[in-house]
Design a protein that fits this description.
With 186 residues, the protein is an alpha/beta fold. It contains 4 helices and 9 strands; from the N terminus they run βαβββαββββαβα. The protein has one domain (2-172): FAD/NAD(P)-binding domain (3-Layer(bba) Sandwich). The strands form 2 sheets. Strands 1, 2, 5, 6, 7, 8 and 9 form a 7-stranded mixed beta sheet that branches. Strands 3-4 form a two-stranded antiparallel sheet. Strand 7 (87-92) and strand 8 form a beta hairpin. The structure holds flavin-adenine dinucleotide.
Length: 186
């Protein structure tokens, strides 16, 4: 099966990437094993939301990405990600997929990034630039895996959005903005 964007991890980082890429026309697949820390959290610090249980936030986020048509494979574990020509081969416990871009959003678990050959920093987190691209071209790392302890849901979601905008800019061939206006909501 072929996707333009394959995302490993369905916490705030992975779902945020998926929202942006699918919304803007890229075929996006998400794999998630539901071990997100959100299930342990209650959010009082997510800008724009007063107070929400982490699991409820996750349910709303899943519904939101599903509404845009993201191909979400819940409870399918990615066991390997490899370079394959210009793209990537993503192996799960169920199947194999090809993708042009891969976005790692596996929380504090950095094993897939290490196996793919991504550089790590001196702090032993995955080295990514401001657009969240790793040393492996077209492979992105987002959320807890690129940070040493400073973990917040809103930061992960921001990382996911940054990765998506970079992928979209590459695909569209110019700097891409996901700017909607009030008329879009009518
Ligand atoms: C007790 C506790 C309280 C917290 N309270 C707050 C708070 O008040 N406010 C706040 O902002 N943050 C809070 N956090 C932190 C917040 O939950 C994290 O910062 C956030 O969930 C990180 O998001 P992420 O998307 O980077 O990773 P995660 O949310 O951890 O998501 C990673 C996902 O990837 C999946 N995955 C991993 N490997 C694979 C694989 N190989 N194949 C498929 N899927 C895979 C996992 O199952 C998981 O669902 C709290 C955390 C804890 C533990």
């Amino acid at each position: 099966m072929m996707a333009q964007v394959a995302i490993v991890g369905g916490g705030p980082a992975g779902l945020s990437t998926a929202l942006f890429t699918e919304k803007n026309g890229l075929d996006t697949v998400v794999f998630d094993t539901d071990e997100t820390w959100l299930h342990k959290a209650h959010l009082f610090n997510y800008l724009g939301i007063d107070s929400i249980d982490g699991t409820e936030f996750l349910e709303q986020a899943r519904e939101q990405v599903d509404g845009f048509g993201v191909d979400r494979h819940q409870d399918e574990e990615v066991t390997d990600v490899e370079r394959d020509g210009d793209g990537f081969r993503v192996v799960t416990d169920d199947d194999e997929y090809e993708a042009d871009y891969v976005v790692l959003a596996t929380g504090a678990d950095r094993d897939l990034a290490e196996h793919l050959g991504c550089d790590f920093t001196d702090d032993d987190v995955v080295d990514a630039n401001l657009s969240m691209e790793t040393s492996v071209e077209d492979a992105y790392a987002t959320g807890a895996m690129v940070r040493n302890q400073e973990w917040e849901a809103v930061i992960s979601a921001g990382d996911g959005g940054a990765a998506a905008l970079d992928i979209l800019s590459k695909e569209k061939g110019e700097h891409f903005h996901d700017f909607d206006t009030p008329e879009d909501a009518d």
